[in-house]
Amino acid sequence: MKDKQEENDQSKQQSSLVDKIQQLGQNNVPQPGDSNIHVLPIIGQVEGHVQLPAQNKTTKYEHLIPQLIAIEQNPKIEGLVVLLNTVGGDVEAGLAISEMIASLSKPSVSIVLGGGHSIGVPIAVASNYSFIAPTATMTIHPIRLNGLVIGVPQTFEYMDKMQDRVINFVTNHSNIEEEKFKELMFAKGNLTRDIGTNVVGQKAVESGLIDDVGGVHEAMSKLNELIDIQKGKQEQVIQ
User: Fold this and answer.
1) Which residue among 199, 203, 224, 225 is buried most deeply as judged by most CB within 10 Å?
2) Which 3 state secondary structure label does DSSP give 143?
3) Is 98 a catalytic residue?
4) Annotated catalytic residue: which of 110, 127, 130, 141?
5) For the whole model, what pTM was predicted?
6) Which of 118, 127, 174, 207 is catalytic?
7) What is the 3-state secondary structure (H, E, C) of 181-198?
8) Would the CA dihedral through 141, 101, 42, 175 be positive or negative?
9) Closest-CA residue to 81 (of 44, 129, 114, 135)
């Protein structure tokens, strides 16, 4: 009887784990009693309104949204680390993720590992403090569309406004000047047969886009510092 009960419990745990993976893309959903810091990986291509082919490595924004809500609501979670190694992806989905990270009441730190390209740029700067690995790169380029374009003037106006949204978000959440960001975005000849700029490690910091060069150790130290500062502010309010 006892063995039967243990089998049932184990089966329920496995079923719950599968459900989390199917619904949220990972198994370590924030739960009471876990670490006070949650790690949110954004890997591959950010998938938005259109489902990408099965062979593409993707991060689905519908997986990230409920996690960010859970982080905000869970009193046990005191900070967030965003790990980025992305080629970019859906612009509106990327901006939605960026806005949610920026609007969290809890401290957040991002680390660009490998690459934080295209729409990965606003996601990287959405946190309270950002790091980039010495060998990591960030590609800054104008908004692009794939496939057939119908109604060219209207489409151009829509893309122009969306591009302004990206520029405004990045300049409002980092130390880079708008003119400098546009210069990097529209530069010619830096990428093969393309428009834009590829900045590596220290160059991203020097431009004001990213706060500092570092990895996991530096990011965790900074996040714990930000958590301590927030706790101090909360204690002052209570007093």
Assistant:
1) 199
2) coil
3) no
4) 141
5) 0.74
6) 118
7) HHHHHHCECCCCCCECEE
8) positive
9) 129
